[in-house]
């Protein structure tokens, strides 16, 4: 048989190759132009463009990533609003009080009503929520009491006097009334409202904070005037603006009246209510979360303080450099006193007691500093008294703001200990 040439053989091979139609193409075969599915035309265009499967899934993955990040951001924002609503409302109240104030004729009535009412609510709730046995046990911890009160009155005042002495080297730098106001801040006792609320939010030993607040307020009329007089007798130029008064009987009357009506009596009534209705107290203040009324009362107390400050024109006439420096000093003082207390207490106290001490030592009571400025010294005008109170007011704003943020860190720090206590309680429950 004649042998076919190369050209005929190639032509025959091509003619003998079966022709495949689109119906015979496998749907899963890679590299084909025709794919039998509902999106065959879209897939055909993607193959023509040279896109791989990985390239096709990139936009979908990017969209899912963006969606996940958005959801995480929303969840974080929601958590922050729920956890730190106190600070958000506090900032709004400062903004409102700077624009609108209660008329001057009603300032005294507003201050009296809100001060007594707010503090009374806070300590009534403490009385209803704290077991009497725990309160009594904390009252007998005299070593912790001495530790906290020595820091509140001596350590903080000594540090403040050192810094004020440095600031007073240039008489043209700071207003003398502001320097004296800083000494009032350092010599003031621990507050009786914000530290209790913050300790509860940070899962610290609230009973210990309550006891420290009561002791600090009780010692204030006796210790604060003596400490202030000790520092102001140095003869520095900024002390020449003061004229000492001797009406300490009025100071004692006012302070102990406030302590009795807004602290001791509500606390006692709350303890009586808890003694007869313990389950109802837990239901109302914990299950129904009515303990948040303490935070609301504290916000009301802070609002009236700033309303009075802006209404009296305390910030008018001050040099901007002095205000900025006071802000810097307020933040520095708080972290300095907090750091000293934390380092000194962590070596010998449990974590919850450390939290209580850290909210007692740096916190200062505005409610007692204000009457001190009006009783201890004579011939102090309204403007000068407002200047005395500016360092106290600014410090209070930052102690509340920083203390609110620290509740997050303290809760995280004490969480392992709380989980261990819960596991131990569950392990002992079947045996009891």
Could you walk me through the main structural features you see in this protein, from its secondary elements to its overall organization?
The chain has 432 residues and is mainly α. It has a domain at 107-408: Na+/H+ antiporter like fold. It has 17 helices and no strands. Helix 9 (194-201) packs antiparallel against helix 15 (351-360). The termini are far apart. Residues 1-47 have low confidence and may be disordered.
Features:
Put_Na-Bile_cotransptr, mainly alpha, Na+/H+ antiporter like fold, 432 residues, 0% strand, transmembrane helix, Sodium bile acid symporter family protein, transmembrane, membrane
Helix-strand layout with pairing:
Layout: H1 6-16, H2 40-48, H3 53-83, H4 85-99, H5 107-129, H6 132-139, H7 142-167, H8 176-187, H9 194-201, H10 206-232, H11 248-276, H12 278-287, H13 293-311, H14 320-346, H15 351-360, H16 366-375, H17 382-428
Rg calc: 35 Å
Q: What CATH first level of the domain at 107-408 would be assigned?
A: Mainly Alpha
Order of helices and strands: HHHHHHHHHHHHHHHHH
CATH architecture of the domain at 107-408: Up-down Bundle
Q: Low-confidence segments, ≥5 residues, pLDDT <50?
A: 1-47
Structural class: mainly alpha
Distance between the termini: 107 Å
Q: Sketch the major β-sheet.
A: none
Please tell me the overall pLDDT. Answer: 82
Number of helices: 17
Proportion of beta-strand residues:
under 5%
